Task: structure prediction
Amino acid sequence: MYRAALIVVRCIGRVIFGFRTEVRGAPNLPRDGAGRPAGGWILAGMPHRTWVDPFVVADNVPVQPRLVFFGDGQAIFRSRWRRWLFHRIGGVIPIWPGERRNAIDVYLASAAAALEAGAVLCLFPETGRATEPGTARRFGLGLAYFALRTGAPIVPVILGGTHDLYRGRRFRLDVLPAVTARDLAGLSADAPPPVPWSSAERAAAHRITMALHELTAGPVLAAHRATEPLPGAKRHWRWLTTAWH
Result:
């Protein structure tokens, strides 16, 4: 079902909508000793602007290991056809607003189980109000906690051109080198991990998000500038920007 869904997405996106994606940095995607695509890492997509972002990511990374998306349950399941689709495809860990800590522990355990099974955990770490194109919003702490608790490396994947959709739109997807939570937090390799839910862990999570935001700010701006259309270029079907809503 997942492969079939990707074929449908590819046909609609490329044939009907005329979308094209330039992929840069593909060798940075983790591989095993035999050179095959490896799992057990976190794909951090940014900036998240429109509905097309997860489809651009899924269409331009290997089908295996399988992507498992961590995302807003209300957005994923808000219509009957979405519920029908995602229940059959799977590969989604939905989050729901207002949950207490015991629910957060379940999310962390689910993410850890997906990574241990060899999947790729895909999430878009931004939170808060929208910012200007060419910038990313602040990052939530969830990504940092996942990386700290599991030790899984983070691979930043930068998206350009997805904020304004129209027929024939050109996107760019830049895969940056993997980074670790320990490096971002300034923790030595032999330092014990912070105690879960301690002030030390929260401080480390804040350092991780700030360091990752700083690391990716330049690539986010570069991807945006590289995909901006020439002045006066025609942009048909601009309703595509909100088509998924």
Summary: Residues 26 and 166 are 26 Å apart (CA to CA). The helical segments are 2-16, 53-59, 73-76, 80-89, 101-116, 142-150, 181-185, 199-227.
